[in-house]
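Hey, I was hoping to borrow your eyes for a little while. A protein chain has come my way and I'm curious about its shape. Take your time with it, there's no hurry, and the full record follows here:
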Amino acid sequence: MTVYFEDIEVGSRFVSARRTVTEADVVAFAGVSGDFNPLHTDEIFASQETPFGTRIAHGPLVLSISYGLRSVRDDWKILALVECQRRYREPVFPGDTVWGEYDVTEARRSRSRPDAGLVSLQVRIRSDRGMVVQDGRDVLMLAAGGEGVREA
């Protein structure tokens, strides 16, 4: 079922599926991004010269994984990601399992696109180590489904 802008309710919450971040994810992301910082790729450096004691996953890797996690958002008629803000709160290690928690904080009709609306989400990415590893905000542009679009 396709969910349009006017179907989104401010105050609604949802949780995504979970996914374990693997060693292969870290290596592949380093290759794709070109980010071979030893914090992510050199175990000796990471264990001896960082406060983490071992290598950590790239923050943007975890961000990218969070966008791919199955959730109700998959049914939304998303036209564009308009804005993404993240704070990297805690490290994610290979082997950690992550998931997202989302709160709809705003929904308003687009001023430039009358056939669309903007939905703001408060985002928390959690890990199985019991902490929020990233938090922030996403703004998505959704297609309007026709009559009854809310003005904001």
Summary: The beta strands are 13-15, 19-20, 78-88, 97-109, 116-127, 131-143. Confidence is low (pLDDT under 50) at residues 148-152. The chain has four helices and six strands. The longest helix spans residues 23-33.
